[in-house]
Every structure is written in structure tokens, then in C-alpha cells.
Amino acid sequence: MKNQENTDFETRSLDSACINESQLTHHWYHNIKYLLVGILFGIVFVKSEVVSWFRIQEMFRLQSFHMYGIIGSAILVGMFSIWLIKRFDIKTIYGEKIEFHSKSFNKGQIFGGLIFGFGWAITGACPGPLFAQIGTGATVIIVTLLSAIAGTWFYGLLRDKFPH
């Protein structure tokens, strides 16, 4: 595989998880709705025990269905939601079209998934509930948060050298 530098935004955007192409601008206080949804999401994580280190270890030791049920439910809801958006051409609340770009599978996803899974198993935390865990008083998770930020920064720095 030859090493080529890819700086074209359009090409790189097709290989990212989410691209915000909205041209709308809002006042800062419009973001409060995201803060409120985040707080609600954190409460749901705590109440469903998704932030529990014990539950995460149980999952990786194949001792309980609890986390698999939650993850499976989230996957089904996501699949159904995407089907609805595509089927009925649902727009954003501001009337903008929602676009889905095809993604190609590559070996980097396997390596990334393994690294992600190992980190999740070792720390007992995945990126979703990190803030909820910190909010419940598990301040040691700040080390995991900083490690996740450092790993993301490191990946961004060396992205073009990794197999994609």
C-alpha cells in the first residue's frame, strides 16, 4: 500500500463518522439543549448501571447478559432510526437533509476495535459513560479520560501513517 497524503476535505470526510455540514449559526444559549440531553443521558447511564465497573467486568468475563442487552438494544434502536430516516426522508429539526455516506471496511478497523476493547476491559470504562462515572464520584476515571484524549490526539497526529 503506497503512502499518499490525503488533504482533500471531501475525500477525508467520507471516511469520518460524522460531518457537520450545517451552515446554520446559533447563539451560544442554543447549546443548552445539548447540555440538558447530556445530563439526562448520564442519569440513564447511572440508573441502568452502564457506568458500573462491575457490570463492565461481568460483560467481558461473559458472566451476565446485562450489558449485552443494553448494547444490543442500542444497536437495534440505531438501525431502526436510520431505516426511518432513509425510508421517510426525515430532515433535521431545521429542515436540512440528512445524508449517509458509504464506508469501506479495512483492517485498521479490526486493530482499532481490539485496542478499544482492551482499553475498555482494562479500565472498566468506555468513552460514553466516562463523564457520568466522574460525575458519580469515581474521580480516578479522570486518568482514563486524559488517556482517551491523548490517544485521540496521537491518532490524529499519525492518522496518515496508519492503514486505512
TrEMBL record:
Would I find Zinc-finger among this entry's keywords? no
Keyword list, A-Z: Membrane, Transmembrane, Transmembrane helix
- Pfam families named in the record: DUF6691
Report TM segments: 34-54, 66-85, 110-132, 138-158
InterPro entries assigned:
DUF6691
* Protein name in the entry: DUF6691 family protein
